[in-house]
Amino acid sequence: MTQTERPRTPEHDRPAQCADTRSGHPRPDGQDRYTISEVAALSGLSAHTLRWYERIGLMPHVDRSHTGQRRFSNRDLDWLELVGKLRLTGMPVADMVRYAEMVRQGEQTFAERQALLEATRKDVLERIAELHDTLAVLDYKIDHYSRKTGDLPATRAVQSHITPTPSAHTTANA
């Protein structure tokens, strides 16, 4: 193994539910050496953000060419996809960096990683519940106004199973 190669471990094998939703990577493994501008275009992140992720330890070691230019791999793209999902959960950057550090430490951190992800999952479920309540209030208000205007709201066709919350009734005239 050369200095720039990383060992392949089971940790890097992703479960099917984390698989790339596109039809695979742009390049097959072994030919997957992307420049920072290519990764920026593929990920939607800026080159500045990618450098920052690397600097703070959120990105694993990124290989370099003989001239020092970053060369990202398909595994790096997969990692960035996971980081994007973690960002969507609202996980603080410090916790994402801590998670990345635990991944680098290996299997002995499985329990800690699980605990961090379970706490994040709990937070996501709480936010989803809040959003469902908020959606119910919006649907109630839309129904209220549609009765006044005679217009059939489009939301009823999509969200007919959501019922208004008690707090929605207190704001009927707002």
Report what the structure shows.
The protein is mainly alpha-helical and 174 residues long. 55% of the residues lie in helices and 2% in strands. It has seven helices and two strands; from the N terminus they run H-H-E-E-H-H-H-H-H. The protein has helices spanning 36-43, 47-56, 74-89, 93-105, 110-149, 155-158, 166-169; strands at residues 63-64, 70-71. A two-stranded antiparallel ribbon has the order 1-2. Strand 1 (63-64) and strand 2 (70-71) form a beta hairpin. It is elongated. 11% of the residues are buried.
Q: How big is the Rg? A: 22 Å
**Termini Cα gap:** 68 Å
> Which outline best applies?
elongated
Identify low-pLDDT runs.
1-17, 19-23
Question: Helices and strands: which structural class?
Answer: mainly alpha
Fraction of helical residues? 40-55%
Question: What's the arrangement of strands in the largest beta sheet?
Answer: 1-2
Order of helices and strands: HHEEHHHHH
Overall pLDDT metric: 83
